[in-house]
Structure formats: structure tokens, C-alpha cells
Specification:
heterodimer; A: mainly alpha; 8 helices; globular; B: 1332 residues; Rossmann fold; 6 domains
């Protein structure tokens, strides 16, 4: 169960990086900064999360169902982006289309939260503020670096879109398994 | 054909709504200029405002909250802004224009002092309000004249002075500010005056006040005069509603109240007034020793109720104890003056203005006034009309009445006879003590809930008082608050409960109160404070409400019998250990509610000051100390003298030179079993080395010198001439031996090392000291000028011992006449002769001054010894040391064990000018010269109550040591903290909580309780099968942390276990000659409990030592096993000791049973402490009576229940496998056990009657006839058990934690395969597209 959850988070992160890679460079930096600030903001909260609390959440049926729905919605949005990006129609994008393009993938915040919490669990004795700030820096570098790396490795957008689509598909599969368990 | 270009969305620009104005800003220079000018104007306005118009900011540091409120509320200028802060929060002064320090108790650390100097360099004014030259004084940037004026304002506390004082400060600190606030000259209070409720009215002499009271028509011609002292400068302070309320209530109660204030003439004013009583709201001592001696000589009782610096909610919260300076000044110090009634009268609560003001607690004030009335009424009421209730303590079943070191029945009888001689009505008192004892055993029974048969027998034969349910509930409603009463009914059902109840003829339920009444004197045994499942979780406190059967006698005593005074007889009961606040109890605390407002006296052994103080503070008892049993010759020196002489000769001549003698001597040693105690080999052909002989020599010297006590003391009966001699010798012989040795050392005849070698001093000087002392004590000379100091002291001790027994009775009579009881310290008289004469009211020590300077040095030395010993044995330093802190040891050694703990950490206390330990210094690693050793501490509830501030200091020390960096040696404190944090996270705590808790390593009983609960767990051995089951009980009961205010009393699952991890050794303090590890159950309870827990957690049993403070000249460490062996040889296996004890009666005999139970306890908790041969030795000594001491006949005569307890222990030990008797041994023991039950009935203590498995084991090993007889005898006391479902004991089996279910889903292989497939697909796609 835990491993499925970790894999799910991995794919969410991958999707996020692929999605963000479609932004202009300054957009990538903006997103990275925002998520970095988010990391700083949740530092205090993360120190108050214990293994028993997290385990309780992951074993609570209602919580898992809610998670599944949110993951599904995100996957749908990203898949919609994939299809939308391949249109040849040059008419101005609708609000929905703009939204789909702008939407970076909010579930990545869960990935950050989960990672930060685990970091606190494993790095005993280190100042919490140091951990929080370091995590924020790592988040920034990961997003900025990861998205740019994706752009440079997979220059063709179509390929990136295909990859994004496959990742979303994997998310859906793992989501089903996760919810089922 | 052209390929359609796919839309390149990377170039899509996201169009944002950028504000147009930003693009054009650069073109708008006018706007820039405008903004700049605006900013300049703003800055200029701000500067002008700050310089001329802003309020003057004044900081007041270290005021009492009430003072702060007074100052703030009397500031009527909106141009003055006042902030009040406690010292520890005043870290920065630069935001202020002037700072006022209140000097009392002020301490500034280095950072604060640096901040003061920095800010004073910038011109900020600093002023300290203090007249005493021992406080910290900081005055900067003020002239002498200004200082003098400020002292006049703030030193003469009054509304006008506060108002004008802050205005004056504004004038001198910020003279440029406008508008100028005018101020009046300071109003100087008369130095010494009388006052009353009317503000501003002062009287220079008592006559003027008397005239004023008459004019106001509130003077009572026949009323008693009360001197009332509320504080040094009290009357003019604004915050005085509690004082006014108390004056008013006392006046309405018929007293003439003379409130007085002043410093220089207080003594004179008191002597002039010569009041009937003094009510002093304490802040330090009332006066000097001369004044205190005078008030006691004049028999003027001193009462010290006090206001508390806590809100009402905090006061009612037992997890917010009174500690630190408040405890010292308000409670402890008045005890030194012999003050009584430490009752709360006011709290401090936030006013609507946000500041704290005193709130009179009306119920408490009424309670105090009523108490005072009743106390003084004892002066007027004729003795024949006085109604006295006496509560004594009794073991359940047929076992003896209990009081530490006191033979209760004859003591009680002597006391009643004395009352009779004083004119008290004791109609019906039996003519002989034997008849009196029979009445007690008939009517004063405490049946256990596990023995319904015994209950029925009691109800059939005794003459209890029957209370109807209606009566009981009415009284309960008057005495107990409704929510507290509900706790009882929730737990035990509606009144009158299940124990000792019946239905009357008209079907009303009634509850029996076991008691005896002789005229106007009521005698009742204190019942069990819990029943059923909780029954065995007692005696030192249960975190549960007591049952109806516990309340009934106290309610009857208050409301039915209408006692004028209450006495608790002997050490000790359990009322003071019912849950609640440590001091300043409320009506919501059982101890306070059940004693009520009665004058309360408590006969308490002088040897137990730690627990006595708790009784004093929680039940507002006036303690009257009684003597310990006399110290007697153990006879061990004679027994070992030949062997000791041989060892000395052997060591002098050299072991290798006398091989045959060495082997002969070794055979002797093996025969006596001494080698086992020291873990030496028993190979007869190999001689011991010189070091081993030296070890044996010291060990035997210790046994020979061990101080033992004889038969229990009887109140009202002085020591016999022989006991007087032996006790005086015990008190003085060591002192003289060391004095002789010091004289020799000063002459150069011996070295300092030899002086510090106790075995050497004993061997060389002890006999000489005895030889000098004995003739002097037998025939005291007239001229003592040329005697050794120690000999003069010995003569004094002898006189004081002779006076003691009369003094004890006289003091109680005096108290019952509404008089005073002289104050005195408490402790073991051998170690602290100043506790003599007894018959006095014990006091404690000032915790803030601990560890004392001498205690610090001793503690350091002992800690270093501990580390040396451990390193010698194991080759490395210990990682963690576990300490047990007890109140008695803390008081008598002034915190020497705290000193040990601090030194282990590498932290030392920093003292202020008053010698209080107020701060800590981390000793640098290079200075310490070794690793910092981690510590974990368990405390008794008693110590927690009296030394809370020391526990906080220790926690800070742990945190300081853990944070140390760049140490040259390993820092086990830091390592341990990290490991603990990690463990706690693994156990499910959040990282934040884990970090907070990982620095807390001081644990104590949960729910403000007082004990580990392990005694009852252990001795209810039928309810557990494996010792590890007890560990969970220990970890639960002792899992509360007491380290800082935020977590005081908090319980976190897994915390104690994580704190015990890596504990390599344990230290148990021992500071009294009146008990040892076998004779006192708490030793195995605490040290044994911790040892078992550590072994369970770590898999390894830690080393265990006793920190032995009993010899003033030789404080040392001793392995627990050795200490147990010394005590066993000197007492329980020593015919001389047994003969002495057999001179006592039932209570003395009960001690044997207790010692046997303690041996059992050690076997459960720490088997390595007990020599396996001990059981065989006990069998030979007691069951076979090899020495023909007449043991069987003795127990048969005085206390068969004790004998049955002893035999039960042996049989249970066999059942558990601790003792492996032969069949013959077992049968003989069984025969002794069953014969006693057959002849005397089952004694029915828990060990005898409350262990089904033991009873089955017994019957299994008896013949069928014997088994039938045994079962019949047991049934008599246990019949109707199955029909009475209210008191069926449930077996409390502690189940081991269930392992977590492993998640079956989510095996790592499946997602891994899926990821691999996806990655392969992605790579393939990338490759394919690239190729295209």
C-alpha cells in the first residue's frame, strides 16, 4: 500500500515537471518560487505530523476516496491539456483552454508536503528551520532544473505531450490500485 | 507538398494584464518628486513626534504581578507608557526611555548586563528599587538626588507615589518631551504603623487603633486580639482586596484585628501588643530567631495563610504546582518559624484592564477563619468537654497497627492515659493496655475488599457506628463539592457503596464506621483508599477517588462526632497522598475536604522529614515528631573480631608470607558466605589476593559498624538506660573517632588519605572512642571544659534523648490547648542530632539554595567515584546514569544527589549573593576532562512537590549539556537526546513533539500521585506470571514528565521507555540509619522498578549503587547487592537484632513480615541483588529457629498475621522459583504456615488471602486432610466472595502490545515492474521519434 502511494506520488511529480516544462522560462522560475514559498509555509505544520497521524489518514477510507477523486480530476485536466495542445486551430484560446494551460498541477504540493514530512522524520537533531529552508531550495532547484531538463532532453513538444499523457494514464492506474487497497 | 507546421505552443505568449501605468512611470518625474517630498514630510513628522510628543516609555522589571497592576492602573497620564516584565523576559532595553528594576530576588545574566551597559551608554536611565544591599543594584544615568527621590516614590508603595513616581521618571528621562506632566513630592509612609480597612488611616500605636475600632463599633470587649501582618509596606498598596476581606471576616468572627506594617519595629510592636495569635501573610521569615523563640515561649500560635500568584484556574489545576520562590517565601520559610495553616486565601486574576489583581477566594477565607476560631477555642474550652478524633493506621486483616518505628497500641494507650490525666473525658478506657489492644482488634478493623468473610465477622462481632444513607449523603453534600462526589459515585456506585453495608429494618441502607469511642475521644482506623481493582494500587496514592467507606469515618468525625481537633497517629497514612495540588489545596482536594477546618495534629517520626512535609502542607497538619527506635549494638563486631584481626595481621605480614593462614581464613569466609556478597570465588585451594582481603576487611568493618535499631519505640516511654547509652553512642562514637583521627592527622601521625579511609578510622579509633565515651556517659562530670567536643556533644545528646518522650506528649497537649509547637528540622538523629528533642514541628529546607555548597562538593566527589568504579569494572564510561530522587534525602543532604546529576552532565550551578542557585554554567569539555554523561531521573511525588524548581533547573542543565558543541570528549547527553528523538518519531510522535520531549528526562508518578504503584503490583503476585508484566505498570505509572512548566505532569506513551534506553547504572540515595534496602519497601519499589524496566528495555541489567550519606565523615557509594547483604547479616539474620526486636509487640513483629515482602520484591525486580542462599538462611533462622530464639512462640503471641505473611512469602517464592527448597524444607514451611492459620485464623493481609494461585499451590502440596483443613480456614474469611459482585477482583493481566498488521497490499515488486515497463516504453518512444 505504501509503495503504491509512493509510486503515485512519483508519477504526480513527473507529470508536474513535464507540465511546467511547457511554460516559458520565466514562468518556470515563477512556479518554482511559488512552490518554494509553499514549502517554507508548511514547515511548521510538517513538524507536527507524526507517523501515526499519516498512517491514520492513509488508512481512512473517506480520506483515500477524496484523494482519489482529486487525483482523477488532476489527471483529467492534464490529459485535456495534452489534447488541447495538439489542436491546429489558431483561434484565440478559451478561458478553459487558458486555464488548462496555466494549471501547473496542484497535487505536486502533496508531493512536497510528503517529502518534507519524511525529511523531518529522518533528519533528527537538525534545526527545523534549516530543514525547511533547505527543502525550499531543493524544491526550487528541482522544479526549475527538472522542467528545464525535460525541455532540453525532449525538445519535441509532441513527445513531451505523449509522455505526459502516459504518465497521466499511469496515475489513473495507480490511483485505482491505491483506492482499491 | 508542404507539411503542415504543427503549432508551436512553446512560443505562445501568455498575455497577462500588465498595468499600463507602470510603463509610463518613467516618464512622470513630477510624480516621483511628489512622492519624495511626501516621504520627507512623513519622516520629519515622525522625528518631531518621537523627539517631543511621543509617550515616555518606562519598563518595570521584576515587580510582583500585584505591584505591576498597581503601578499601571495608577498611571493616569496618556503621555507615559508603562510595560512590566518578569526578569527572564527583559532581554532588550533599547526601546525604553527609563527602566526600573525591582531588586528583590533580581538576577541579571551576562546578556542582560551587557544590554544594560549598552543602553546606559545611549543615555537610558536605569533605577533599582531596593534598599537591601544583598540584592543586585543597577543605577545608571541618574544622580544621587534623583535616586533618592525615586526610592522614596517606589519604596513607599502607594497609589499617589506610583502615579507621581512615573511622572517624575518622565521628567528626568525625557525632559524635552511635551507636555510636561506635573508631579507631587513623594509621600513617605510612617515606618511602623497600624492600619485598618479604611485607606489612608494610619495609627502609630495600638491604643489609637483600639480607639478607632471602638469608635467604629467593631471592637469586641471579650474578643481575642490578632496581630495581622500582610507585608512590609502593605497598607498603602492599591491591590488589597484580599487583605480587606480577611480583616473584615476576622472582625465579624469576633476577633480584634490589629494589622501592622513596618520593618524596624515589628518585633517591638508584636511584643507590645502581645496578641493571642498572629496571622502573617508570609513573604520570608516573620522575624529573627529571638522573636520566634519569644512567640513560642509566649505560646502565641502563628498562622500563615497566603495569596497565590496564580489565577483561579491555575490554582485549581494540580498540574500547576506551587514552586520556586513562591513556595519558598510563602510556605517553606514560615515553616521554619513554626507557622501553621498554609492555606490559600487569594489568587491573582486578569482584570478587565489586562493586569492581574488579587481575588479573594471566599470559601478559602471562610475556611481559614473557621480554622483559626476552632484553634483558639481550644484555649477556652475545658479539657473535659473537648472532643478529639484520633485516626490510626492499620494493615488489613489481623495484622498490626502501623506507624514507622512506633509500637502503636501501647503508644496510643499511653497517649490516651495522658489525655485522661489532663482532664479529658475518656470514659470507658480499658484499665490495661492488653484489654485496650483487644478492643482495637475487635472494633478497629480494616477489612480488605478481597475478604468478605472477614467483613462479615467484623460486622457480627464489632460495634461500629452505623450511618444511614441519608445522613451520609447529607454530610457529603456539606463537605464535598458535587463534582468531586460524582467521581465517587461514578466509580463505586451510589452511596453507601459495597463495603461494610447493610440494610436497616426499614430497608434504608447503612454503612458501618469502624471506630471506638471513649468518652469524648474517638478512635478510628484509616480505611483503604480504594477498593476492588484499585485496591492494590495504593498506599502512596491512587489517581482515583476514594470509596464511600473511606469518606464515611471522616464525615462522621466532622459532622457526627463533631470533633474539636483531629490527630493522625504515627507515620503514615494515605490521606495526604490522595490526588490534588501539592500545596494550597482547595475544597476540591480530598485531603483538604476530609480534614475540613479542624485543628489537625500529626504524630510523625523524626526520621521521615520528606513525607512529613507533605502531610504538613497537604492536610495543614501541625507535626509533632517522635523518636526512632533506639539504636542497639548489633553484636557483629564481636562475631567478626577474630576474623578481622586475622585479616589485619595477614595484610600486615603479607599474604604470600602466610599461605596456610590465608587458606584457613578463606575457608572461614566461605563457610560464612561472605564471599558471595562480594562475588569472590569459593575455590578453597586458591588463596585470595591482598586486594580481595582488603575488600573483605572493609566489608566486614561495615557490617560490624552497621547501626541497627531495636524494638520499636513506645510513645510516652523513655528509652531504657541501656538503650539510652547505645543510642547516644551510635550518635557520637563516629564523631569522636574522627575527631581523634583528625587530631592525629594534624600531628602528622596519620595521613589525610588514612583519615578519609573509613575502615582505617574504624579499626584504629572506634574502640578508643567508645572507651572514652562510656564512662563519661555513665557518670557525667561536672566540669566539661577539658572534654573533647564530641564528648560534650554526646552529653547533650543524652540529655535531649531523655527529654524527648515527655516532650512529645507535652507538645501534643500544648497543641490541643490551642498553643504552639516549636519548630525543628527533621531527620535521622544519628546523622542530624539537632532534630532532638523530638516533640517538635518539622520544617524543610530552601530548595532554591540547593545544591548547597557542601552538598555540591560531596555530590561532585560521589559522581566522580561512580564514574571511576564503572570505568574500572567495564573499561569505559557509562552512557547514562539513572537517579532516584527522594524528598527525605533532598532535605537532609541539601540536594547532594542533584549535585551528582549536574556533575555527570558537566554543568554547575551559579549562585547569587544570597547563595541561591539561580543559573547554570556549562563546564567546558577541557575542564571537565571526560565525556558528558547522560542522565534519567525518577522522582517521588513528595520530592516533586517540594523541589519543583530544582527539577526545572535540572532539565535546563540537560538541555544545556545536550547543546554543547565542539567537546573534546564524547557527549553522551547530546547523543542520547538525538537517539531519543529518533525513537520517539519511530513510535509515532510528531518531530516537533519528539524534539520537545527528547530533552525531558525527569519522570514521576502520573496524575499528581506519589508512588510508582509497584508495591501493590509486585506483592499481588497471584495476578502476574512474568516479571515483564510489571514493567508496563511501571512505565505507565511513572510516565509523567516533570521538567518544565509547559509539560509539567504530561504523559507521552513511549517516552519513559525511550529515556531509559542505554541506562548503564542506577543510583539510589540513602540518608538514614533507620532504614535500609530490605527494611524499607520504597527502595525496591524505586530502584528495583527502574532496574527491571531498564533490563526489559535494553536487555541488560544496569549496575546499581546506593549513594550512602549516613556517615557525615564518609559519604560513599556502595553496590546495592552489598548494601542488601550488609543489612541482611546485621539485621534479619542477626540473632542479636532478632532478640532485640522480639522485645517489641505487634507493630514491631509486623516489621519482619515487611522485610520478607521486601526480599520477595527484590527478587522480582532485581534478582541479582539477593543472594540465592538468603532464603535458605531465612528458613534456618525462622522456620527451624536454629538459634533457639523462641521465634514461633513470639509471633504466635504478638502477631500471628505477621508470621503467616512471612511463611506466605517463602512459599510464594518457592512457587515463583526464586527459592528452590528441598521437599523437606517446603513441607516444614507449609506446616508452619497452616498451623498458624489453624490456631489463629487467617491473618488476611493481601499476601495471605488475596492470592488464589498461592492457595492452590499450598493445597496441592498438602495431604488431602491438611488441604481440607486449610481450605476450611481460608473459606471462613473469604466466603460469600462469589455472591458479592461488587468487590470481585478482576485479574489485571497486562497484555503485551500487538504487533502492527503488515500491509498485505503494495508489495514493492508490483509497482516496480509497472514503473520499469513505463520507463522502457518512454525510452522506446523517444528513440523512435528521434530516429524519425
Amino acid at each position: 500500500m505504501e509503495y503504491i502511494f509512493y509510486t503515485l506520488l512519483l508519477f504526480i511529480a513527473l507529470c508536474f515537471l513535464l507540465k511546467v516544462s511547457f511554460y516559458p522560462r520565466w514562468g518556470i522560475l515563477l512556479v518554482a518560487s511559488a512552490y518554494s514559498l509553499f514549502t517554507l509555509a508548511i514547515g511548521e505544520w510538517a513538524t507536527e505530523q507524526s507517523k501515526s497521524i499519516v498512517s491514520t489518514y492513509l488508512n481512512a477510507r473517506s480520506v483515500v476516496q477524496n484523494i482519489a477523486i482529486l487525483i482523477l480530476l488532476e489527471a483529467i485536466v492534464l490529459i485535456a491539456f495534452c489534447f488541447d495542445s495538439t489542436r491546429e486551430n489558431k483561434q484565440p484560446a478559451t478561458l478553459f483552454q487558458r486555464g488548462v494551460f496555466l494549471y501547473p498541477g496542484l497535487l505536486f504540493t502533496w508531493v512536497i508536503a510528503f517529502s518534507v514530512i519524511h525529511t523531518f522524520w529522518n533528519l533528527t537533531g537538525i534545526n527545523f528551520r534549516v530543514i525547511t529552508c533547505s527543502s525550499a531550495v531543493i524544491v526550487f532547484l528541482t522544479i526549475a532544473g527538472g522542467a528545464n531538463l525535460a525541455r532540453s532532453l525532449i525538445k519535441k513538444q509532441v513527445l513531451r505531450l505523449e509522455l505526459l499523457f502516459i504518465c497521466c494514464f499511469c496515475i489513473l492506474i495507480f490511483n485505482i490500485i491505491f483506492t482499491g487497497n | 507538398m508542404q507539411r503542415k507546421k504543427k503549432p508551436d505552443i512553446t512560443n505562445n505568449r501568455i498575455i497577462f494584464m500588465l498595468p499600463q501605468s507602470i510603463c509610463s512611470i518613467r516618464k512622470n518625474k513630477k510624480l516621483y518628486s511628489g512622492v519624495a517630498v511626501f516621504l520627507l514630510i512623513l519622516a520629519g513628522t515622525y522625528a518631531t513626534y518621537t523627539h517631543w510628543f511621543s509617550p515616555t516609555r518606562i519598563l518595570i522589571v521584576n515587580p510582583l504581578p500585584a505591584q505591576a497592576a498597581d503601578i499601571l492602573l495608577n498611571n493616569d497620564s496618556r503621555h507615559i507608557r508603562i510595560t512590566c516584565l518578569p526578569t527572564e523576559k527583559a532581554t532588550s532595553f533599547k526601546e525604553y526611555d527609563a527602566v526600573v528594576f525591582y531588586g528583590r530576588g533580581l538576577y541579571l545574566n551576562d546578556k542582560q548586563q551587557a544590554a544594560v551597559e549598552q543602553c546606559s551608554a545611549k543615555g537610558i536611565r536605569f533605577f533599582t528599587n531596593s534598599l537591601r544591599n544583598f540584592n543586585v543594584i543597577v543605577n545608571r544615568n541618574i544622580t544621587a538626588e534623583q535616586q533618592s527621590l525615586l526610592l522614596a516614590y517606589f519604596g513607599n508603595a502607594s497609589r499617589q507615589n506610583y502615579r507621581n513616581g512615573v511622572r517624575y521618571l518622565r521628567h528626568i528621562a525625557t525632559p524635552n518631551k511635551v507636555p510636561e506632566e506635573s508631579y507631587d513630592e513623594p509621600f513617605t509612609l510612617p515606618a511602623n504603623l497600624y492600619y485598618h480597612q479604611e485607606y489612608g488611616k494610619y495609627f502609630p500605636a495600638k491604643e489609637q487603633l483600639t480607639a478607632y475600632l471602638k469608635a467604629k463599633d467593631i471592637y469586641h470587649e471579650n474578643g481575642r486580639n490578632i496581630a495581622f501582618i500582610a507585608g512590609v509596606s502593605f497598607p498603602t498598596e492599591g491591590n488589597r482586596s484580599h487583605v480587606d476581606t480577611l480583616i473584615s471576616r476576622l472582625t465579624r468572627a469576633g476577633f480584634n484585628v490589629y494589622p501592622m506594617a513596618g520593618t524596624s519595629r515589628r518585633t517591638e510592636m508584636l511584643r507590645d501588643l502581645r496578641p493571642d495569635a498572629i496571622v502573617y501573610l508570609p513573604m520570608g521569615r516573620l522575624g529573627n530567631d529571638s522573636l520566634i523563640r519569644w512567640i513560642h515561649t509566649e505560646n502565641i500560635p502563628l498562622f500563615s495563610p497566603f495569596p497565590l500568584l496564580q489565577s483561579t484556574a491555575e490554582w485549581l489545576d494540580p498540574m500547576k504546582p506551587v514552586s520556586g520562590g513562591t513556595l519558598t517565601a510563602r510556605v517553606l520559610v514560615p515553616e521554619i518559624d513554626g507557622a501553621m495553616a498554609p492555606l490559600l486565601i487569594a489568587t491573582q486574576n486578569p482584570h478587565e484592564s489586562g493586569y492581574h489583581l488579587y481575588t479573594p477566594e471566599k470559601e478559602r477565607i471562610n475556611n481559614f477563619v473557621s480554622h483559626l476560631q476552632k484553634y483558639l477555642l481550644l484555649r477556652d474550652k475545658p479539657n473535659r468537654d473537648k472532643r478529639v478524633a484520633i485516626c490510626c493506621f492499620k494493615s488489613p486483616g489481623k495484622d498490626a497497627l502501623l506507624a514507622s518505628g512506633m509500637e502503636v497500641i501501647p503508644s496510643l494507650y499511653n497517649f490516651l492515659k495522658r489525655l485522661q490525666a489532663e482532664g479529658y473525658d475518656l470514659t470507658g478506657l480499658p484499665a490495661t493496655v492488653e484489654a485496650f489492644g483487644k478492643r482495637i482488634y475487635q472494633d478497629g478493623v480494616v477489612p480488605g475488599s478481597y475478604a468478605p468473610g472477614a467483613q462479615q465477622e467484623f460486622l457480627a462481632k464489632a460495634n461500629p457506628v452505623w450511618l444511614t444513607r441519608t445522613q451520609y449523603e447529607t454530610w457529603a453534600g456539606e463537605v464535598i463539592p458535587a463534582d468531586k462526589y460524582r467521581e465517587i459515585t461514578d466509580r463505586y456506585g451510589p452511596a453507601p457503596g459495597e463495603l461494610l453495608v447493610r440494610s436497616s429494618e426499614n430497608n434504608e441502607q447503612q454503612i458501618a464506621v469502624a471506630c471506638l469511642q471513649f468518652g469524648n475521644v474517638l478512635l478510628f482506623p484509616q480505611p483503604r483508599p480504594a477498593l476492588g481493582d484499585d485496591d492494590f494500587k495504593l498506599i502512596h496514592g491512587a489517581p482515583v477517588a476514594p470509596p464511600h467507606s473511606y469518606l464515611a469515618p471522616y464525615l462522621y468525625m466532622q459532622k457526627g462526632f463533631e470533633a474539636d481537633a483531629l490527630i493522625h497517629f504515627g507515620t503514615h497514612g494515605n490521606l495526604e497522598y490522595t490526588p490534588g495540588k501539592n500545596v494550597a489545596l482547595s475544597q476540591h482536594d480530598w485531603a483538604d475536604a476530609l480534614v475540613g477546618d479542624l485543628p489537625h495534629f500529626y504524630y510523625y517520626t523524626t526520621g521521615n522529614v520528606g513525607e512529613g512535609i507533605i502531610a504538613k502542607r497537604r492536610t495543614h497538619a501541625v507535626l509533632v515528631t517522635y523518636l526512632t527506635p533506639p539504636f542497639v549494638e548489633s553484636g557483629m563486631r564481636q562475631r567478626y573480631s577474630a576474623l578481622l584481626d586475622d585479616i589485619h595481621n595477614l595484610l600486615q605480614e603479607g599474604v604470600e608470607n602466610r599461605p596456610s593462614l590465608a587458606l584457613e581464613m578463606k575457608k572461614e569466609v566461605i563457610k560464612s558466605g561472605l564471599h558471595r556478597d562480594l562475588e569472590l570465588d569459593s575455590v578453597p585451594g586458591t588463596p585470595y589476593t591482598a586486594e580481595e582481603w582488603d575488600k573483605l576487611d572493609r566489608y566486614m568493618e561495615e557490617i560490624a559498624n552497621e547501626k541497627i535499631t531495636g524494638a520499636f519505640y513506645t510513645l510516652g516511654q523513655a528509652y531504657s538506660a541501656r538503650d539510652l547509652m547505645t543510642t547516644t553512642l551510635a550518635m557520637s562514637v563516629d564523631e569522636l573517632a574522627y575527631e581523634l583521627a583528625r587530631t592525629e592527622r594534624d600531628k602528622g601521625a596519620i595521613s589525610t588519605e588514612q583519615l578519609q579511609d573509613f575502615a582505617f578510622v574504624n579499626r584504629q579509633y572506634l574502640s578508643e572512642a567508645k572507651r572514652i565515651l562510656m564512662p563519661v556517659l555513665q557518670n557525667p562530670p561536672q566540669d566539661t571544659a577539658n572534654l573533647y567536643e564530641a564528648v560534650k556533644n554526646a552529653l547533650t545528646y543524652k540529655n535531649l534523648l531523655q527529654q524527648a518522650s515527655q516532650n512529645e506528649l507535652n507538645a501534643m497537649i500544648r497543641g490541643l490547648n490551642g498553643g504552639t509547637v516549636f519548630p525543628a528540622p527533621g531527620g535521622d538523629p544519628v546523622l542530624h542530632p539537632n532534630v532532638l528533642p523530638t516533640g517538635r514541628n518539622m520544617f524543610s529546607i530552601n530548595a532554591e539554595m540547593t545544591p548547597g555548597k557542601r552538598a555540591w562538593e560531596e555530590g561532585k566527589r560521589l559522581a566522580e567515584n561512580t564514574l571511576e568504579r564503572y570505568k574500572e569494572k567495564h573499561g569505559d564510561y557509562p552512557r547514562k546514569a539513572g537517579y532516584t530522587f527522594w524528598a527525605g534525602e533532598f532535605i537532609t543532604t541539601e540536594g547532594a544527589t542533584i549535585a551528582q546529576a549536574l556533575w555527570m552532565l558537566g554543568v554547575e550551578p551559579v549562585r547569587d549573593r544570597q547563595n541561591r542557585a539561580v543559573d547554570l554554567r556549562l563546564i567546558p569539555s577541557e575542564e571537565l576532562g571526560r565525556p558528558r554523561i547522560n542522565i534519567v531521573i525518577q522522582v517521588s511525588g513528595q520530592l516533586r512537590d517540594i523541589a519543583g524548581s530544582r527539577l526545572k533547573m535540572l532539565t535546563e542543565a540537560i538541555q544545556l549539556a545536550a547543546a554543547a558543541t565542539n567537546d573534546l570528549y564524547p557527549n553522551y547527553v547530546s547523543e542520547g537526546t538525538l537517539l531519543q528523538e529518533k525513537t520517539l518519531v519511530e513510535k509515532g510522535l510528531s518531530p516537533k513533539r519528539a524534539r520537545e520531549m527528547s530533552g525531558l528526562r525527569i519522570f514521576g508518578p502520573v496524575n499528581s500521585g506519589y508512588s510508582t504503584g509497584m508495591l501493590s503490583y509486585t506483592e499481588n503476585s497471584g495476578k502476574w506470571d512474568d516479571e515483564s508484566e510489571l514493567v508496563e505498570g511501571y512505565l505507565n505509572n511513572m510516565g509523567a514528565v516533570y521538567g518544565d512548566d509547559d509539560h509539567w505532569g504530561a504523559v507521552e506513551k513511549g517516552l519513559l521507555a525511550s529515556a531509559l534506553d542505554r541506562t548503564d547504572l542506577l543510583i539510589q540515595p540513602r540518608q538514614s540509619n533507620t532504614w535500609g534496602p530490605l527494611s524499607l519497601d520504597h527502595v525496591y519499589e524505586f530502584t528495583g522498578g527502574m532496574s527491571l524496566a531498564v533490563k526489559t528495555v535494553t536487555g541488560k541489567e544496569p549496575d546499581a549503587y546506593m549513594a550512602d550519606y549516613r556517615n557525615r565523615n564518609n559519604k560513599r557509594l556502595q553496590p546495592v547487592k552489598e548494601a542488601v547483604a550488609v543489612e541482611a547479616r546485621a539485621t534479619i539474620l542477626n540473632p542479636a537484632f532478632i532478640r532485640e526486636r522480639m522485645k517489641g509487640e505487634a507493630t514491631t513483629a509486623q516489621m519482619f513480615g515487611e522485610t520478607f515482602r521486601n526480599i520477595f520484591g527484590w527478587n522480582v525486580m532485581r534478582p541479582s541483588a539477593i543472594d540465592p542462599e538468603l532464603y535458605n538462611d531465612l528458613y534456618k533462622c525462622y522456620i527451624l529457629d536454629e538459634k533457639k530464639l523462641g521465634i514461633h512462640a513470639y509471633f504466635d503471641r504478638v502477631n500471628p498475621a505477621a508470621w503467616q505473611a512471612m511463611t506466605s512469602v517463602l512459599i510464594e517464592s518457592a512457587r515463583k522459583g526464586y527459592w528452590k527448597p528441598t521437599e523437606e524444607q517446603l513441607q516444614t514451611t507449609l506446616a508452619a504456615h497452616t498451623a498458624s492459620i489453624e490456631n489463629n485464623g487467617a491473618g488476611c493481609t493481601e499476601f495471605i488471602c488475596d492470592n488464589e494461585k498461592l492457595q492452590n499451590y499450598i493445597t496441592h502440596h498438602l495431604s488431602s486432610g491438611q488441604a481440607a483443613t486449610f481450605n476450611r480456614n481460608m473459606k471462613q474469611v473469604k466466603e460469600s466472595r462469589t455472591t458479592d459482585d461488587g468487590v470481585v477482583l478482576k485479574q489485571e493481566k497486562i497484555s503485551p502490545p500487538q504487533p502492527d498488521e503488515e500491509s498485505k497490499a503494495g508489495h514493492p515488486v508490483i509497482p516496480g515492474v509497472i514503473i520499469a515497463i513505463v520507463l522502457i516504453l518512454m525510452v522506446f518512444m523517444v528513440y523512435k521519434r528521434n530516429k524519425e
